[in-house]
Amino acid sequence: MATQPSRELETFPNPRPERDYTIRIRIPEFTCLCPKTGQPDFATLLLEYIPEQACVELKSLKLYMWSFRDEGAFHEAVTNEILGDLVSATNPRFMRLTAEFYVRGGIDTTVIAEHRADGWQPPVLVQLP
Predict the structure, then answer these.
(1) Is residue 24 included in any domain, yes or no?
(2) Taking the complete model, does pTM exceed 0.90, yes or no?
(3) What is the CATH number of the domain that holds 102?
(4) 41, 55, 108, 118: which is the annotated catalytic residue?
(5) Catalytic residue at 32?
């Protein structure tokens, strides 16, 4: 197979660094393993961020997500690990990762982790009539 999972996150320069704008990436096929049973856990991840100087490149993000497929991880730990790696790679103004894990044993789990750059203030939401 020519393409393999990878923990390397590539970036590219933010085309509009002077502007706060939101990038939303939906990842509906995330998988890892339950660290207790070894059974697969499935989740939909929603990544939302306001870039500073760099944006995450999508193919590298796909290969990065694939790298968790055979790893055991608690939902809380893997969500925070992914957020930490993405923050390290892109140094965004703001980043939120929402991980919605599918039902297992009658329970579903949602984990939300956030990062805010020091001194960054969110823009005021404009309410139109």
Answers:
(1) yes
(2) yes
(3) 3.30.1130.10
(4) 41
(5) no
Burial of residue 30, with CB atoms counted within 10 A of its CB: 0-12 exposed, 13-18 middle, 19 or more buried: buried
d(CA 80, CA 51): 19
CB atoms inside a 10 Å sphere around CB 56: 22
- Express each pLDDT in 65-124 by its tens digit: 999 999 999 999 999 999 999 999 999 999 999 999 999 889 999 999 999 999 999 989
Enclosing domain of residue 105: 12-116
In a domain? residue 127: no
Closest by Cα among 32, 103, 96 to 64 = 32
For the question of residue 85 being annotated catalytic, the response is no
Residue 28 domain flag: yes
Catalytic residue, from 34, 70, 108, 118: name it.
34
